[in-house]
Amino acid sequence: MFRTAISKAYRTPSLVTAAAAMSRGTVGRSASSVIAHRWYSDKTEAATEKKEASDKASETTEPTSISAEEFEKIKKASTEKDAKLKELKDAYLRSLADAENIRNRSKTEVENTKVFAIQKFAKDLLDTVDILELALKHVPKEHLADKVANKSLVDLFEGVDMTRGSLLRTLERHGVESFDPIDKPYDPNTSHALYQAPIPGKTPGTVFSVEKRGYVLKGRVLRSAQVGVVLDPSGN
């Protein structure tokens, strides 16, 4: 009856064997051995399945060998790609440099436009200054000495001189300055020689007469001075 009860309660062969062992008086030792054998078998099967799965994964990830011809094609394609990237990078850098140059030129042009906006207007005013200076130059000095007898002439002279001075100061406020090259070496970049003459005691090549003074605007020659230059008597 004991064996029958065990057979009904456990349907697996391992447990049946355990029940038989129990009926023979070896229940404690034999049942434990059977259950341990069953657990070990399950563990061994799980380890085997895990190893097979790992081997399969290794097989799928194993690098595929390629021929030398395919390797050369891949290498050539990689080289061409690197060359193309370098070309695009160089073109990009050149574009940046060109854009920066254009920006700098535009900035300089804007600044120059602001600085030299009055260039034409200032140059036209110089003609007025020249006329006033010419008028002052032709007034005899002896007439100016007698301020009582020639009061009207003296007042006119002073008025014209004040007008000329006011114009020059206005031009200076806007960056226009005059220069007088008298007794200086002749410079064709800033002066225009109207004539030459041998002058005793003067160094040849120097300016001995200034008919019209020169003017510069922010360091740039606005009008060259009109001068007379000492001529070397030897012709050199």
TrEMBL record:
The keyword DNA repair does not apply. GO terms for molecular function: adenyl-nucleotide exchange factor activity; protein homodimerization activity; protein-folding chaperone binding; unfolded protein binding. One of its GO terms (cellular component) is PAM complex, Tim23 associated import motor. Keywords: Chaperone. Residues 46-69 are annotated as: Disordered. Belongs to the GrpE family. Residues 46-59 have a biased composition (Basic and acidic residues). InterPro entries: GrpE (IPR000740), GrpE_CC (IPR013805), GrpE_head (IPR009012). This is GrpE protein homolog, mitochondrial. One of its GO terms (biological process) is protein folding.
